[in-house]
Structures are given as C-alpha cells and as structure tokens.
Amino acid sequence: MCNNKDKLLQVKEELSRKFEMKDHGDLHFFLNMEVERDRAQRLLYINQIGYLKEILKCFRMEDCKPIGVPLDPKTKLKKNVNKDDEMVKVPYQQAMGSLMYAMLCTRSDLAYPISVVSQHMANPSLEHWIAVKHIFRYLQGTLQFKLCFGGLSPQDVVGYCDAD
Amino acid sequence: MMGGGATSWNSKRQPTIVLSTTAAEYMASTQATKETIWMTKFMKELRYMKEKKAMVIRCDNQGAISLTKNPTQHARTKHIDVQHHFVRERVENGEAMFEYCLTEEMVADVLTKALSKERHYKLITMFGLETS
User: Fold this and answer.
1) CA-to-CA distance for A135 and B107, rounded, in angstroms?
2) Nearest in space to B64 (alpha carbons), one of B24, B104, B107, B11
3) Do B1 and A158 form a contact (C-beta atoms < 8 A)?
4) CB-CB: which of B21, B56, B132 is closest to A148?
5) Who is most buried in B63, B71, B96, B100, counting CB within 10 A?
6) Taking a C-beta distance cutoff of 8 angstroms, is the pair B89, B31 a contact?
7) Which ipTM value was assigned to this complex?
8) Does residue A34 sit at the B interface (CB-CB below 8 Å)?
9) Can you give the pTM of this predicted structure?
C-alpha cells in the first residue's frame, strides 16, 4: 500500500537485495481466490469460482441441479438421537470444512446455513446431509457470484448487526 | 461494510438465553462493536483513515439503540449482563455510533435466518456479491 511509485520501487529493490524474490506484477490468484480489477471503473472483484467448482467435483455434486436459496426457510433440523450406520460413510465434516473456507473468504451468504448444519456435525442424520447437499446445489446456481468492492463507493466502515 | 462490499462477517448462535428481542440485539451489537473497533484501528494503522471517527453501526431495533445511548436502569433491562454494557461505554467515549436502519435494509438479516428467494438475492447484492 503506497501512493508514491518511486518509493515503492525503492522498497522493492532494497527487499530484493536482501531476499531472493520475484515480481509477479498485479495480484491475480491468492489462496484459491481470484482477484480481478476493473481499473476504469475502479472496481475490484474477488471470486472463488475455481475453488467452488473443485469442491463440487470433490463431493460429486458437479452435475447437480441448481436451487435458489441455500437453506429452505421451512426446514427445521432436529438433533439426531439414534446412530445411523449409513451416515458413517458420508463425508459430512469434510464437506463442512470445504464450505466453511468458501464462506470465510467470499461467500458471506453461506454463513447462516453453515452455522445451522454444522451444529449437527458430531452425529448427522440423512436429513442433515440433505441440507448440506442443498447448500451445494445453491452454490451450483450461484457459482458466478463475486465479492465486489468499488473505489467510488463510500469508503467509511459501516457495521450492521442483527439478531433473531 | 466498506467500499460497497462486505469486509468482515460473522454469524453466531446466541450463547445465552435472553428474554427480549432488544436484549438479543443488544448482545449482537456487542459483537459488532468489537469487530468494528478492531477494524478502525487497522484502518488507522494503514493510514487509510485520517482522523479518528466514530464508526457507524446500523441496528434494526430501536430499543437496543436507546439502550446504548441512555444509561437508564429499569425493570425490563436491569437483568442484562454487565459485559454487554461494553457497548455503552464505547458509545460514550465516541468510538462507536448507533444508527437506526429499517429491517428491509438490514443486510445482516441474511446472516441470521433463512430467507425467501427475492429477499436473499436482494440482500446478498447489498453485501457486494454480484455476477459482474
């Protein structure tokens, strides 16, 4: 972060004298996030399309039918009291982990559905697994969504808080 | 929210039981205040923000807002835990400022419940999520 180009170059030069380093130019790809910039309109997009496609494939959901919302407002997930032998084979926790990374980086819309399904991580039932697959189907439909920041939008930090 | 996009978000299950929605919102605002205070400090360190400004936090519950401003004690609020009066202190010394925001415009709604399709997409667009 610097707005003086000469100083920037100077720092770069001094660093490269001390350490072995390469200049790859503008940031494009970082921890599975792709960064795109629209200099003319002063916009910056962060997306995880590649990562999302990868996790869909990993859980064999790459051909699933897309769906509108990540969590059906009508569903109420209950605690699973009996032990299902079938559910042992299901990669529930792995799926949670993969979704959680997407949620932390760019997909804030997944935060609530994930918080709901991850409450049943220890002993999931088929019903819970269907809810997780629902999230994947929602992702399939919203793969192209990017987090967008604009240089022309207000730069002040504003917080929002809500409870339910 | 900053520069038209969301920079930090959090959805949490309430750790304790509360008796009113105001108390619930008040507790949520404690979380929001903690995060925004850190954010202001970080922005200042990057010299992105010049002077110390009170950070605006939007809340859709009038009761919770008046609770942050007015240190009154009465029958309905006297049970609220002392830790949540942290917010009140921050408002007093000008680090945070609470504003009312209509429930329709409450972006954080998407983080607290499952919504209908139209509302879900409206709010995530407000979050800065879009298909370019």
Assistant:
1) 20
2) B24
3) yes
4) B132
5) B96
6) no
7) 0.84
8) no
9) 0.85
